[in-house]
Amino acid sequence: MTFGFAPSSAASTSSTDLSAASANPLARLLEPAEWAEAGIPLLRSPREVVSGLHSRHQPKPATAIVAVLDPDERLLASASFTRRPAPADGWMFRNTLLSQLRRVIPHDLRRRTPVRTAVLLYCREGDARWTEEDGAWMWGLRDACTLHGLRCGAYITLTRDGWQVLGEGRGGRRPNAASAPEPFATSESPPLLPRTGGAASEVLRRAAAR
Predict the structure, then answer these.
(1) Closest CA relative to residue 101, chosen from 158, 56, 140, 131
(2) What's this model's pTM, rounded to 2 decimal places?
(3) Residue 152: what are its φ and ψ, rounded to 5°?
(4) Which residues contact 5 (CB under 8 A, 6 or more apart)?
(5) Distance of alpha carbon 61 from alpha carbon 95, whole angstroms
(6) Record's superkingdom (predicted)?
(7) Tens of pLDDT along 115-157?
(8) What is 26-170's CATH superfamily?
(9) Domain positions in the chain
């Protein structure tokens, strides 16, 4: 098990998965109104979360970052990977996100109520307006969280215009897809270092960067 952030990698997909996923991809996406009505918990400090993930993973367009936060909104684990050039499909995104979550943090399926929250930041081309690709990521995140015993948290896009928490109307100009990472000297805690091995108690506990 790997804790902290994981190197970029895309989940492998079998031919059976590809065949099943091609059935009806448009049915596996969420509209902004559906997302807003789903009771997704609001981030208390979205810019801190975005800036911290941007500094650690330095995403480029087509990079997705899935992160798990504790109840105090501290980063427990995160993984980044590059989206493959294929039609957007929530089922495929769900499988990829679930694979990444399984690599970086144990599941919470034994809990009666989820206490940890997964958020997704996706760096892409274009403007901040919702796209069908965003809808597929939303569907995939919600489903992956259910299967891993996590609360489904915010979906955030990062473009050249800045960052945007979809379904909430909150955003900012920096960081953006073209900006340099902000120095960790401005953060309230030191940067996470990648760690391997050990038990769940070794999950890195403090990582909130402005």
Answers:
(1) 140
(2) 0.76
(3) -80, 120
(4) 56, 57, 77, 78, 79, 80, 104, 192, 194
(5) 20
(6) Bacteria
(7) 999 999 999 999 889 999 999 999 999 999 999 999 999 999 9
(8) Cytidine Deaminase, domain 2 (3.40.140.10)
(9) 26-170
